[in-house]
Amino acid sequence: MKPKFLSDGLSEIYQNYDAFFIDLWGVIHNGEHLISSANDALDQLHKKEKRFVLMSNAPRPKESIAIYLNKLGFNKHYIKNVYTSGDAALDALEENKFGKYFYHLGPRKDEDLFTKFINNKKNVVEEADFILCTGVDEINESNLKFYENFLQQYSKKKMICTNPDLVVYRGNKKEYCAGSIAKIFENLGGEVIYFGKPYKNIYENCAKSNEKILVIGDNLNTDIKGANNMKYDSLLIIDGVHRSEFKKNNTDNFSKIFTRYNVIVNFIQKKLKW
User: Fold this and answer.
1) Distance in angstroms (rounded) separating the CA atoms of residues 89 and 238
2) Stretches in the chain below the pLDDT threshold 70
3) What is the CATH number of the domain that holds 131?
């Protein structure tokens, strides 16, 4: 089925859905500033009394994301709608489902995720029950070879990945995410447990029974794949993480991109707009 371009915006189809699961980074903001048309669409959904969840693969709890969104000038009334992959992982981590002690692989800013059980953090992998991967650290943020070399000797450990995204764009700059490290670990023979899109745990925590849901996102690997996994309809924003792929192809070739990623897309917009 060929996806439909929403030339007139989300207003064309919103009445067909009870709830909207909307990605943050790449849809609502670009890592540097809010995307005005997308935020206007949130206002319209709110006015129409449509439920929406701002579903993010951020590896931190929504309280941390709220601070960041506030700096961007995001509408404070919508903060309660945020749900992150960090939130999805938190209960399991607090219950010691993967063991008590962990080694944190990621930047200091992600330590908000385990504030409540900071005493369980170990400074050497050998003393930990599992590796908690939240992203690349400040020193090796662009050096994936470092992680391959570092993780080779620890492939018998279990890794918990709280952000399945491979990359994001901060403005026009590409940045690696925890998912890139997790893929390296899997290639080394390690076992990874993921929290966040496209895995069911994050959707099941947000969905209500008998709702017809539209997923809106820019990432084919996570947003759209997750929608497909849950049998939800999807709206792809093409001016996001895959922008370079779509710029290189005319609309007739978009289907080849979707086939390569093994996904089904129902609707397309360049940017989210009402």
Assistant:
1) 28
2) none
3) 3.40.50.1000
